Amino acid sequence: MDALSYKTVSAKKSEVKKEWLLIDAEGMVLGRLATEVANRIRGKHKPCFTPHVDCGDHVVIINADKIRLTGKKWTDKQVIRHTGYPGGQRILSPREVMAKNPCKLVETAVKGMLPKSRLGNAIFHNLHVYAGTEHKHEAQQPKTVEL
Question: N or C, where is the chain less crowded by C-beta within 10 Å?
């Protein structure tokens, strides 16, 4: 048995092939959508996945204003943020967040599933969320993905 044939191969940033994916979020449940998107952004669906390298794809999500939440989450769930000042914790319901910025709810759900590190921050920039059907990434020719 040749030990050299079983070497672990780590992907390098220059070797990674990034694709552009388009996901239509109309009628999808928020949590299920967020897990799939987080895995695609991170690159876990690829055979060359390396935990310390950004080997994921760019994901464009359209119709973010038409997502679903199950149960009574529209009113009972809490979306918490902090202003950075003492006593600056702000709590909103998903319905209030959706009224202000429909894309923020999807972005928050996906960001919570990414690593809390510099790599996680860099990976998050591969996510592009739009409320309607129009997006500005037509030149990249994203492939439509059915989840």
Answer: N
Q: Which domain holds residue 135?
A: 18-72+103-144
Distance, CA of 147 to CA of 133 (rounded, Å): 17
Residue 52 inside a domain? The answer is: yes
pTM above 0.70, yes or no: yes
* Separation of alpha carbons 19 and 143, rounded Å: 8
Q: pLDDT tens per residue, the chain (147 residues)? A: 566 667 888 889 898 999 999 999 999 999 999 999 999 999 999 998 999 999 999 999 999 999 999 999 999 999 999 999 999 999 999 999 999 999 999 999 999 999 999 999 999 999 999 999 999 999 999 999 998
Rounded distance between C-alpha atoms, residue 98 and residue 96, angstroms: 5
Give strand pairing partners of 59. 21, 127
Q: What is the CATH number of the domain that holds 34?
A: 3.90.1180.10
Round to whole Å and give the CA distance between 62 and 1: 51
